[in-house]
Specification:
The chain is an alpha/beta fold. About 40% of the residues lie in helices and about 15% in strands. A hairpin with a 2-residue loop joins strand 2 and strand 3.
Length: about 450
């Protein structure tokens, strides 16, 4: 049973998709994509001469080329071919308040015209936001960074300084940014990671990871064995409280509380990576929603209104390692007044009422998609947390990475491309999830539901 503060709806009946039907539709959809995206193709050709793959971050690329966006406002994008897209990616949560939100624009413009963009000194703006975030997320101390990767790196370093241990534990399949220690077993090939009950860490050649133990999500006995064998060497366990790089994988009821207890027993710092959950999980993040307090949390994306803001923070006793010099934390742009202005706007906008209204829109969309799944007896189910949701192409719950690898990626790719060709942009395949921002409406989400119903008819055609 999944945690009751999350959403999962499994179908009562289902039928397989006819053999070859998804492949047939996918081939047709790729032809349609090529015929309607000539400007994106030309832009990618140009960009590839100076940008590897023609993109500024590798996740932006897909074969044969991605859609290139020239502008955005609210919940909508405009691509270089002049087509408007409903944005259901929303910067993986960074655009929670919508593109060019007027409150964010007002605060940032004031900073640009009256305050300044960078002092490299203490400032009232950073102090104000530290107080606001500590109140909101229920933590004692916080430091600002510029990306989720930075925040995870410093959180691990803080845990090492606090425990005087070096090793870490991470979840198999989980992604936590670019820091070397967290590049182990990020969506690895099953052939490279050993049996499910004794996973082997997969380390890319370019990575110097240190000692990293890999465990399955939702498997307390495996974590208990790992900590019993290596606990005296382990500084930290890093986990997304709800995994959001494998679509959405929910914690079993009681799992996170069990993780908390095991970390306490072995003196291991528990780090919740809330870079992707954060405010998208609720007004105080996933930790508060699920009722389990970590020692440290990392934040990014949703807290910055589209500007590059991240943070790490938590219990005073752990964060004191920065105070007394056991760990130094640096960064020229940390907490600069421009991003603090955006953060202040987000904090003002993201009231419990505003986030509850967006979540209600998401729940209504999930419920409508559940009805389509039931009507067409599709081999799929919905999962949701806060303002995020997804369709997982499996009739059974996905509880860990191995379950995720058993889902139907062919139909998932089709579902994604089907939407792209009808001007609904979600992140590719099963890797991510849609996001209902504060700018989305029920009418917007009905486009997603109608699109999914059309796909269902085509699959059964």
């Amino acid at each position: 049973m999944h945690d009751p503060r999350t959403h999962r709806s499994l179908p009562e009946r289902s039928r397989p998709v006819a053999a070859g039907r998804a492949e047939e539709l996918l081939a047709s959809e790729w032809e349609r994509f090529a015929s309607s995206t000539s400007a994106s193709r030309e832009h990618n050709d140009r960009a590839s001469r100076t940008l590897p793959l023609g993109v500024t971050s590798s996740f932006q690329h897909w074969d044969p080329y991605p859609v290139s966006i020239r502008s955005a406002r609210g919940a909508w994008l405009t691509d270089v071919d002049g087509r408007r897209f409903l944005d259901l990616s929303m910067g993986f949560g960074a655009m929670l308040v919508g593109h060019l939100n007027p409150v964010v624009v007002e605060h940032v413009e004031q900073a640009l015209h009256e305050t300044g963009t960078l002092f490299v000194t203490p400032s009232p703006q950073a102090t104000d936001m530290s107080e606001r975030f500590c109140r909101r997320f229920g933590i004692d101390m916080i430091r600002f960074t510029n990306s989720g990767t930075e925040s995870l790196m410093y959180a691990i370093r803080a845990a090492r300084a606090f425990t005087l241990r070096k090793a870490i534990v991470k979840i198999e399949g989980g992604y936590h940014g670019g820091y070397d220690a967290l590049q182990v077993s990020v969506k690895p090939a099953l052939a490279d990671i050993g049996p499910a009950d004794a996973p082997v860490g997969d380390v890319p050649f370019d990575v110097e990871a240190g000692t990293v133990h890999v465990v399955a999500y939702n498997d307390l006995p495996m974590l208990e064995r790992t900590l019993a064998a290596h606990g005296s060497e382990i500084a930290a366990l890093v986990v997304e409280p709800v995994i959001e790089n494998l679509a959405i994988v929910l914690p079993d009821e009681g799992y996170l509380a069990g993780v908390r207890e095991l970390c306490d027993q072995h003196g291991v710092v528990l780090i919740f990576d809330e870079v992707k959950t954060g405010l998208t999980a609720g007004p105080a993040g996933a930790a508060q929603r699920l009722g389990v307090q970590p020692d440290l949390i990392t934040l990014a994306k949703s807290i910055g209104g589209g500007l590059p803001l991240a943070a790490f923070g938590g219990k005073r006793e752990v964060m004191e390692v920065v105070v007394d010099g056991r760990m130094a934390h640096f960064g020229t742009y940390n907490g600069n007044p421009l991003v603090m202005a955006a953060a202040r706007a987000v904090d003002e906008i993201c009231t419990p009422e505003a986030l509850a209204a967006a979540e209600a829109i998401n729940v209504r969309a999930l419920t409508a998609i559940d009805e389509v799944i039931a009507e067409y007896e599709l081999p799929a189910h919905t999962v949701g947390l806060g303002v995020k949701g997804c369709v997982t192409w499996s009739t059974t719950p996905v509880r860990n990475y191995r379950d995720y690898k058993a889902t139907d990626f062919g139909v998932a790719e089709l579902a994604w491309l089907w939407g792209v060709n009808r001007q609904i942009l979600t992140p590719p395949g099963l890797d991510e999830q849609w996001l209902v921002s504060l700018a989305h409406t029920d009418e917007d989400m009905s486009l997603l539901v109608d699109d999914f119903a059309a796909l269902a008819r085509a699959l059964r055609g």
